[in-house]
Design goal:
By secondary structure, the protein is α/β, with parallel strands linked by helices. It folds into two domains: about 40-195, no CATH class; about 200-375, no CATH class. About 45% of the residues lie in helices and about 10% in strands. It is built from 15 helices and seven strands. The strands form two sheets. Strands 1-7-3-4-2 form a five-stranded mixed sheet. Strands 5-6 form a two-stranded antiparallel sheet. A hairpin with a 5-residue loop joins strand 3 (about 105-110) and strand 4. Helix 12 packs across helix 15. The longest helix is centred in the C-terminal third of the chain and has 19 residues, at about 280-300.
């Protein structure tokens, strides 16, 4: 694992950090006001029909892996399968026993394709069991089940068991959603409310599924830039690194439009520029690269951190401040960035704006203004 660059005069301490050590903000739990009603209906799918629709991509499980193959149909949002084999076995056993199971939530796209909002682990388990493989080189046989089912695969079920499984109905709530008619925040909020528990989705994972387009692809591209990785660290499986890039672009482009809650500001920026409408892609790429280059050369991983963890509010200020300074041209003296950072950390007004209630409008304005002022005159 890479370590922080040690700044002159700061001693030889090195900070080993994982990509997930990003300070969380209370803003993530902020309520969204004025949500629009959603239109939905209920229907039942038999298990065999669900698997068939998954295989034909009439039902699509959104995925969220930042390293997804950019050539795939769902590039940019492949989430890792998180159920353990025990969970998979017992879910299939529940169906074979005729036990009731929770319903699933789907979102109907304008082309009638159904996006899985809640239930992806159950649906993927069914798809794997019917395929006969729970991993590429491992046959799907039931292990963690009662003796009457132990060792069974889909292909070895007797006729009665197969009919019972194939014809079991799973209830689905289908939300009708057309992006062109609005309602983004309502669907985003529904994602948040349904995905609870130990494997819940993070805000950027939801955005990637809901607002997928040219800007999401640009975020994925920028996330792979070498000097960004140098100041952030290893890629985040929960897309926290991509969210920081989104925050930087949104504040750099639309700071004056900011209103709390922060997640709505980011949602609206991503929705408004889903396919890069109104944005100059190449200019954004150049600004981001130049900002990361300057930060990496002078500050290393301390560019995004006050102490051990990545501090999202601090990162906003540092990146936006450096980017605005670069409008005047290259920074010839990297040492001046170190001095500017130290000055900000010594400023109580700045530190209060990155330490608590960081999404309040006045604190956002204060930290960005102080950072831009600190970096404005450096050479």
């Amino acid at each position: 694992m890479s370590t922080d660059k040690v700044e002159p005069g700061e001693g030889a301490e090195q900070l080993e950090l994982t990509s997930e050590e990003v300070e969380e903000e209370e803003e993530r739990d902020a309520a969204i006001s004025n949500l629009e009603p959603l239109s939905y209906f209920g229907t039942d799918f038999d298990v065999h029909g669900l698997v068939r629709r998954l295989n034909t991509k009439d039902i699509v499980v959104p995925s969220f892996d930042p390293m997804a193959d950019s050539g795939s149909e769902l590039s940019g949002f492949q989430r890792k399968f998180v159920w353990k084999k025990t969970q998979m076995d017992r879910f299939i056993e529940s169906l074979l026993l005729g036990f009731p199971i929770p319903g699933i939530f789907l979102v109907q796209q304008p082309n009638k394709q159904l996006l899985v909002l809640d239930g992806q682990q159950r649906l993927r388990t069914l798809q794997k069991f019917y395929s006969g493989k729970h991993a590429p080189d491992e046959e799907f046989r039931l292990d963690n089940v009662g003796k009457e089912f132990k060792g069974l695969s889909y292909g070895s079920l007797d006729d009665e068991q197969r009919r019972l499984l194939d014809n079991t109905f799973i209830h689905a709530t289908v939300v009708k959603y057309n992006r062109t008619l609005g309602g983004d925040e309502s669907v985003y909020s529904l994602f948040e409310r349904l995905n609870t528990g130990g494997t819940n989705l993070y805000p950027q994972e939801i955005r990637v599924a809901l607002f997928h387009g040219g800007l999401v692809e640009l975020l994925r591209e920028l996330n792979g830039y070498g000097n960004w990785r140098a100041i952030y660290g290893p890629p985040s499986e929960r897309l926290k690194d991509q969210e920081l890039i989104l925050r930087f672009l949104a504040f750099f482009e639309d700071e004056e439009k900011y209103k709390r809650p922060l997640k709505v500001f980011l949602n609206e920026f991503l929705s408004a520029h889903r396919d890069l409408e109104g944005l100059a892609k190449e200019d954004l790429r150049k600004v981001f690269h130049a900002t990361c280059d300057a930060a990496s050369i002078a500050l290393g991983r301390k560019a995004l951190r006050v102490e051990a963890q990545v501090n999202a509010a601090f990162a906003d200020a540092m990146l936006v401040g450096i980017a605005h300074r670069l409008k005047r041209g290259p920074i010839e003296n990297p040492e001046s960035l170190i001095e500017a950072r130290a000055g900000l950390i010594a400023n109580p007004d700045f530190m209060s704006a990155v330490a608590r209630a960081t999404a309040d409008e006045d604190r956002v304005t204060r930290r960005l203004s102080l950072a831009k002022e600190a970096f404005r005159e450096i050479r």
